[in-house]
Structure formats: structure tokens, C-alpha cells
Design brief:
Blueprint (H helix, E strand, L loop, with lengths): L21 H7 L9 H17 L11 H31 L37 H14 L8 E5 L7 E3 H11 L19 E8 L2 H8 L28 H18 L4 E5 L2 E5 L13 E7 L12 H4 L19 H24 L3 E4 L2 E4 L2 H25 L2 H20 L9
Helix pairs in contact: 1-2, 2-3, 2-9, 3-9, 9-10
Amino acid sequence: MPTNLDPRSLTSAVVLTKTGSSTAVAAAVPFGMYTSSAEFLNGAAVQVAYTYKKLGGDVVDIELTPANVYAAYEEAVLEYSYIVNLHQSKNVLSDVLGNATGTFDHRGEMAPGTLSSSLEGQKVALKYPRFQFEYAKRIGDGMSAVAGFGGTVPQYSASFRPTANIQDYDLQNIISSSAATGEDDAGNPVIFEGKVEGKRIIVTQVFYKSPRVMWRFYGYYGGIGVVGNYSTYGQFADDATFEIIPTWQNKMQAIMYEDSLYTRTSHYSYEIINNNLRLYPDPSYWDFGDLDRVWIRFYVDSNAWDRDDNYETGVDGINNVNTLPFDNLPYDSINSIGKQWIRKYCLALCKEMLGQIRGKFTTIPIPGESVTLNHSELLGQAKEEQADLKDKLIETLKEMEYTELVKRDSERSEAAATTLKNSPLPIFVG
């Protein structure tokens, strides 16, 4: 004779009720992350009825308490928040590296009340930056500085007066002494005061100024009213003579002039050996009265960990996913899509808890019979459902990464262009 079981036959002293209570949620959840949200308290309470129905509470005993469901509901919300924030971190990390951390300090610890001005206010977790390509620009800045094209690394210039019969000049001494005193050997102030001591300098350019190179371009006859030919740098007849040429030829002329200025028309060359600048030919060979001063353009080799007074956030700001200013998603801001995922994931967690409870005793004796519990089946279902829910959410979010959205918009634009191309032209009347 089969044993007829119903909830009143009580296989356990603890049986899940049909409904929950929002007033009891705050005292039952382990983390208390969302206890200030009335929507969360109500959602957790309603989850009890949903869990009761889905697990067959009208037919068999469910050895769970409402507190178990409340805790599972909080865990489901936190898991959803974790996956969404992890997805968003992939979108924005490269744009915010080095920026102010907002809700977290540079150690990744919560810092309430210290939000930056750009992030100050409620619901910080929902504030995401615009596309800035900050990381790419930082890489470009570093490469530009090394190549001598500028960037955020400040470049300085220094000069010294060459001396007859002296071919080698110690750049470190020249620049260090100017940095220490705040002025060069001519008494002019220098902007790199106090920035060189004990640090290596990287020379990007050595040059001098002389009227002779200007005469080469403008000539003796026409003055500044004459434009030189881009190939010969020759002069035309009169002061008002101009040549009509395309813009690209002007650019070519400027490039060739610069090349001529620094190479073909220069009387001197140099090489850097260790810290010494060696001039060629020997300065005694030429009248250095025409040379006057030699200029050096350089930047200071900085420690990557040093803080820049003008770019402070580059060191102490966001450095990895751990320091992104992402708090747990506000429950009230989670839409219906997210809340349905939370309900299903909470149910899977409840199945896991129920399986763990029933697994402690595989069978329960009752009068004249024994009941075999389905703990292994519950555990298998719970793990499979949790993995499936997380995989689908991650897959969906991956399709919504900013790069994928751009690709999709591009495909949509191409499809629209193809459609318009194959459509007859409209007739305009007016």
C-alpha cells in the first residue's frame, strides 16, 4: 500500500511557509546590503511564495525556512550585481585608468564620503564614463615623449656657450647646475629648476641658431617678400614675386627646408658619448662668434611610480578592475529583466540548500514505511540551473559590450545603405 504524504504528514519539524514577511527580511539576510530598500524587502518576501510553489510545497514538505529563502535572494542579487559590474569593467577600464577612484581608494577599500566631484551623489554604481581612449592615449603619450614629439611628459630646453678648442661638453653638469641655481650661465631663468637632480636626462635634439641659414632661404636680393623654390631654395627676381603652388607643395617645401636647416646648411654635427656632447668639427676650426650658443632639447627620465603634480591621478587613481568605482547595483535600479534572473537564480540556490539538508539523511522512517529523499537529484538540478543562468547572462552581456555594439551598428548601417542603393530614387516636388 503506497504511503500518502502531504505537508501535514511532516517529515521535518521545519517546513517552508506559503508566504514570507518583508518585516522579517532585514533580520535574516547575512550581509544586509539592501535592507534599506523597500523593494528588496518586498521582493525577498514574495520569493517565499514563488519558491514554495515551484518546489511543490502544496504536495510535499519543503525543509526550508523563510530565512533560507531571504538569504538566497540576497545572494542572487549580489551575484547578478557581480556579473554585470564585471561586464561593465571590461567596457570602461581602458577609459578610466589613472582617473579618480570614486567610491574606492587606490587600495580597493571603501571610502565613503570621499567621492570625487565628478562622481559625487547617489547611485555611483550607475555612473559610467564616456569613451575617452585614455589608455591608448597614455601609451601614445609615452611613445611620443620618447620619440621627441611631445606628449604629457614635459620637454625642456637648455643652452650653453661653446668654447674654442673644447670639443666635449658634460651635459649632466650643464643642465644640473642650471636646475640647481634656477638659471643658465647667461643668467636666464630655467623652468626645469629642481627637476633634474639625481635623474637621467634624455636628449631629443641639439641645434643652434645662425642668420646664415635664413639667408639661404630668403636670399640676399628679394628680402622676406620672396618665396624660395621647394627644390632649389633659389630666389626669384623681385620683392613681389610669388609662385602659385598647391598646399602639398608648401608642406614639402617646409619639410625640405627643415631638413636643409638641420643637415645640409649646418656647419656642425655632434654625437653623445655617455653624458658628453661632442661637437664636430673642433670648435677651434670655426669662428664660434657666429655660433653663439648651442641648444639642447631634453626631457627628464622619470620614475613610473612618481607622482606628477599636474597629473596626480595617473599614479594614485584606478589601476585595475579592483579599484573601479563600482558598488553593488542599487536594487531599485534593476529592471524587470534582471529581477526575473534573480528570482530564477534564487530558486536554484534554494534547491541547493534543500538538497544539502536532505542529503544529511537519505531516508526517513515513518510508521510502517520509509521515505527516500531526492537530495542528489536536487543538487544536480541546482548546480546545472545556476551554471546555465550565469552562462546565459554572461553570453548576453558579452553581446552587449561596447565593441560589439559598434560592430552591430556598423552592420546595420551597411545593410541600410545596401537597401537604399537598391531602392528607386524618390521624386521630389517643390
